[in-house]
Amino acid sequence: MRALVTGCAGFIGSNLTDRLLADGHEVIGYDNFSTGPKAFVEKAQRSRNFKLVHGDTLDLGALTGAMRDCDFVFHLAANADLRFGTEHPRKDLEQNTIATFNVLEAMRAGGSRRVAFSSTGSVYEEASVFPTPEDAPFPVQTSLYGASKLAGEGLIAAYCEGFGFQSYIFRFVSILGERYTHGHVFDFFKQLRRDPTKLRVLGDGKQRKSYLYVQDCIEAMLFAVQRASGKTNIFNLGVDGFCKVDDSIGWISEALGVNPRLEYAGGDCGWIGDSPFIYLDTTRIRALGWVPKLSIRQGVIRTVEFLKANEWILERRE
């Protein structure tokens, strides 16, 4: 296929781009490089099947031009810093919701009809059912990030009904692995790099979270795209399990050979809109034959190993 990947220089987007090229597909990569570094697309740029477009998803004209003759769109570009949503509420609206509207309009103008969307398990907010299935009732939204992603899901479903699109909506747990540039492992690694004797932890360390290795995430996405045939296909992506933040701290500390004193900020949430327990039911995607290869612990350790070998990423984000 000829696919457009928005956010092609991002963590998940760059890994997906490399995988699509390795599988023999033609890829148009679209990114404004506001967060994703150009180093993440260096491998892709060596392929004759890759074209890089430096553009913003808020620029509908540029997006429409880049999407010309594409038969599939992977829309991964987004503002992913959900922790700071209340500090810049317009960013979630523009980069997550309006950008998704622009992607859909560009598809409508150019004739593309199939789209995969990176949503989030945060749309379930503080769920009442665990593991949480795709048809769980939605509680009141408590994060601007989750609300903006849920709005994007609604737009996509409406375009599927109104314009004959086919969509694959993926509600991720937090993703770990190579090219990881933000999240708790990144934050803890950066702190311990500066001072290995102490670690400040948001919340009480007892928050329960699920994580997924990036290559398992990509494999699941491609499984769904190849095998699911519905109009609007919604899949949770995660592993069968979760860990406490304290568990993750132990694995990170062990991998770094340190034993820091833990300083807890307190409370059962790390920030406004943080869900203290995220654990998704992945029965639907597993029914297609997908099984994750790495455990949460293995994903955390792979991430630490990547950061140790690529400390320039930390300096870039100082």
Can you characterise this structure?
This protein is an alpha/beta fold. The protein has eleven helices and 13 strands. α3 (60-66) crosses α4 and α8 packs across α10.
Strand order of the largest sheet: 3-2-1-4-5-6-11
- The H/E string reads EHEHEHEHEHEEHEEEHEEHEHHH
Number of helices: 11
SS elements, strand count: 13
- Uncertain segments are none
Distance between the termini: 39 Å
User: Biggest β-sheet, characterized?
Assistant: 7 strands, parallel
| Mean pLDDT across residues | 95
Q: Could you say which overall geometry the principal axes of the C-alpha atoms support?
A: globular
* Gyration radius, in Å: 19 Å
- Counting helices, strands and paired strands, the structural category is alpha/beta
How much of the polypeptide forms β-strand, as a percent range? Answer: 15-25%
User: How helix-rich are the residues, as a percent range?
Assistant: 25-40%
TL;DR of this structure?
This protein has 318 residues and is an alpha/beta fold. Helices cover 39% and strands 18% of the residues. Helix 4 packs parallel to helix 5 (144-163), helix 6 packs across helix 8 (245-256) and helix 8 (245-256) packs across helix 10 (296-309).
